[in-house]
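Hello,

Our lab assistant flagged a job as stuck in the queue for most of the afternoon. It eventually completed. Since we weren't sure the result was trustworthy after the delay, we are filing this so someone can double-check. Below is the sequence as submitted and the structure that was eventually returned. Let us know if re-running is recommended.
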Amino acid sequence: MKIKIEEKVIGGNAPVFVIAEAANSHEGSLEAAKKLVRAAATAGADAVKFQKFVVEELLISTHPDFELFKRLELKANEWKELFAYADELGIIAFADVFDLSSAAFMASLNVPAYKIHSTDLSNPDLLKYVAAQEKPIFLGIGASYVEEMEQALSFLHEDVVLIHGFQAYPTRLEETNLKFLWTLRERFHRPIGFMDHIDANEEFANLLPLVALGFGICLIEKHITLDRSKKGIDHESALNPDEFKRFVLQIRKAELAMGSGKNTFFEDEEKYRLKTKKNVVAKRNIKAGEVVTRDMLAFKRALGGVSPMKAEQLIGQVISKSMKKDEIFVK
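-- returned structure --
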């Protein structure tokens, strides 16, 4: 199954779709948000993603994070400027939408896709509204039961990517559960993505998504920050701009190694085959007129000829021209 978002294709044999997850690491600053967009574009990410919410619709007023999220909100005109800037740089920009007001605002900007955070996986009102926009949907499924995923999908259209992963600031390696990606593919037969949230300071931080490639994912989402040392929002699992650029390069190199899955050879492998495969040769000098018997045949590396698998077809044939020891039998 393939999904198209602007000029990009997700799924099938298309390159892995890389999302630079900026989320709220802009800390409420438009200038910082624009720097994150530029960093994502420079790194070669396919898209940059933020989080759009109205704090009064996201949290109750007594929630301990209410004031924090209030500080993180960008104004309507700032969102417009931010997305226009992303368009100038040629990178896809979209957002998690956490409420109907935010979804409607993103619709007014004609965003090319929507992300539904796992916090709203069981929010039928938001699911139905986003589905009605008829744009690709990235559905976060962290900390959700399969039955909840099925219910959510019943409200959505076909162009949905399920994204496995959750944020534990950071998520421990043993909690990543990459094998669940297989379960998702077999259960839902939809494109599957992976959100990586392990400790960005770990040596394995850039390697884990490469391992996930082997589970057939078509999308990778990874946090990006301007400076992890400042310990801002989501810094625990976020890569600095230079690290993110290396990360994208590693993904693209890994894709080259993944290949097409087809039983075809590159030029070097064709040469390797010619040099290393054994073929049927004369075990001794054979005179013209002799009838080929099994004891006349040997299997050795030779540049071309008849495969040992077809040696039996040579037995009983009459030699028309004398052959020297190690001479190749021809078809």
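-- support follow-up --
The delay was a queue issue, not a problem with the job. The result is valid. The chain has a mean pLDDT of 97. The chain has two domains: 2-258, 267-313.
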